[in-house]
Amino acid sequence: MSVRHALLALLSEGPKYGLQLRQEFEARTGDVWPLNVGQVYTTLQRLERDGLVEADDTTEEGPQKGFHITEDGAAELAQWLRTPPDFSSPPRDELVIKVLVALGLPGVDIHDVVQVHRRYLVELMQQWTRLKEDESRFDLNFALVVDAELFRLDSLLRWLDTAEGRLKRAAAGVDAPLPQAGPLPKARRKVGNRS
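-> structure tokens emitted (195 positions)
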């Protein structure tokens, strides 16, 4: 998550001070990602150093010091909004890494590992669904965050189902033997680099 760009977006609406930015950031993100006020001021200092924001012409320092976005800041914000994130390489997902590591460990039942994580994901999905039913009709930002989280958890659950099916077929000799751990061929490492 880019706090830097989120603060630029909030400042594009008009001048604001640090505590106000923190409160608005948390409200805009459905109060799901708390933001430390120290992080806000550190980010503002960096943005000011980079010429993307300027402090208002007041001598007041501290929590009431106001900031506004510059033309360069507005240009960077516009570019960030139009630039897709880099999804060409798989993220280092802890769940995927656990399953891959457990696969080669002696004495570890990989199916038990998968089941523990499947149950956990289902419980999380149920919790998020309850939150969505209780609060999302009142808060569009929160509803969008909950939807994103439910889709993310669902994709992990589907990956576990697929992985378990592949493991069962491999154990039964239906699939080719599982490859030993090693680097992916260069052509497969970066999805976006296909010719």
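DSSP finds eight helices and three strands in the chain.
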